[in-house]
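Shipment paperwork, digital attachment
Item: protein structure file
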Amino acid sequence: MTGNIVARRYARALFAIGESQGKEELAAYGKGLAELVDVLEGAPELLKVFRNPVFSVEEKKDVLAKIMDRVKPVPMVTNFCFLLADKNRLAFLPDIQVYFNQLLDMAQGIVRGEMVTAIDLADDLKQEVVEKLQKQSGRKIILDYSVDPEILGGLVLKVGDKVLDASIRAQIEILKENIKRGE
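Attachment content:
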């Protein structure tokens, strides 16, 4: 719980600075954070170093400097990460990046979602679904696609906080419940 609060505060602070600098800087901050977190997730032992109190702040900064040489984010993101090191908050970087991206999506009017189907759909059909959703919501929609044969047919669509379960599996479950109740 505390980690979420800390991550949100730092993400909001970086977002506010980026917003004051303009949309291009804001996007650059997001890109820099994403690249940095990709490196950390590719080498989970780095996050363990950042979490471990045995390592001093200076040792953590040395590790961070080597990562920064590889990623080369904009100077503000570099300074932000060194501030996190000074405050012993480097372990929160993945959470900060997640919250930063959520703020960035809201600012750009983007809604993310997921579409699950029983079979893999053609790209033009996927695009058609996205276009219809965008027309209905008036916002830009970005969907992640996955296949789950267990839904039998139809689709499960999760966009924002809304879920549409139009799968055959869900309809069968509804029928089962109706039969149990004697309807």
